[in-house]
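Minutes, project check-in
Item: structure for the 411-residue chain
Input as provided by the requester:
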Amino acid sequence: MPETTNTSKYSSRFIYALVGFALVNLVIWKTSAFGLFTPQKDIQQLVQQNDEADTTSMSKTWPWWIAKSYLEEKQTPEVVVLGDSQMATAVFTADAKASGKKVDVIGHRHVEGLEQRLSDKFTRPVSVFNAATAGSMASDHNLIARSLFLDNIDSEKPKLVVIGISPRIFIDNTLPSASSTESFRFFSQCADPGKLSQLAFGDYFGQMSWYINKCLPLGRLKGEMQTTYSVAKLLPKSTIKAKKYTEEDFMKGMFASSTKVEKDTWFVPAFMPYIFKDNTAEYVNRYANPNPPLYASELAFFGDLLERLNESKIPTLIVMMPSLGPNRTLLPDTFWKVYRSNISTLCDRNKATLVDLSASPDFVIDNYLDTVHLNASGGSKLLSNIADSISNNHQLTAGLSNQPIAVKAVQ
């Protein structure tokens, strides 16, 4: 009899707790109509809410700096470049050497080498924004593009998008799911994955946590309270100091993806001796399973991005990034055959132009920092190839042949 009584008591408590939880969510949902909190943020609100003095939220991370830099553009960039560290490294090293000046990897958000090449071809200035970030996946590129311009009805859209891809952004075995990256956590606050949400998580509990925090008012309010009223915002700015790094730390600066970073901390030197690091062991881990569950998820996000770009009538160039033979052979021939077929099919379906440089003989070992990342000479070759691919394709040059797009309205 006592056992029955205890069971009944616990059952009643659970029911009361469930009803209470529902009522609290209902109250918060009702008050949201009065603007007490925002269920879904836009990119400008997201950047402003995470300010430079707050080290406990998403500020001072790579995604935050990219979003902040994009919003500070006086004119909507005509070309936006997406990619991971392979694209970012090529841009930083090539631009540093061409300018003869060290490059701050946080503040350097224009692809000067591509701007110069396109400006020469079109005989007018062409702006190119660098949204590539280390460690990003195809799912991140989807959310970045949607946050910065695709879902922003108040903003002009670029005239061309260039996306650098490689097997890593689809099958990185060191990531449990698409939702585990810093870029995903940041940009998903204003670009809801929608129907792709079920593919973004590695397990049922991760998906449930996402839905609670994203869909239920109480979960959303908790996240907003943590950001708006974090302890760091109560501290004087002088107490939060950035660690200074030397130029020897430049590789860490380019490849890091989950670190609080500030301007004037990491640089790519203009001139540096030739160095090469064999990072094969790292990619043995990344490619341990050439067909993980993550692969299907990332392909779905990639296909969704191409579809959205096509619907928005934004010409798109997909570049299969070059890598050295020792890295490519870590993946079986069967993978490469299916991978190239998958990418080609998605590009054809969505009218995107595909350039495959993955095994290009133009890129030799002297052009690399390691088996996948290009140095200054390799980066210069890549930018020249991209510029030629654009200028020789009428579909890609259609928008760039017109006058520059309007200056962005002051927010």
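Outcome recorded: The first helix runs from residue 2 to 31.
No further action items on this chain.
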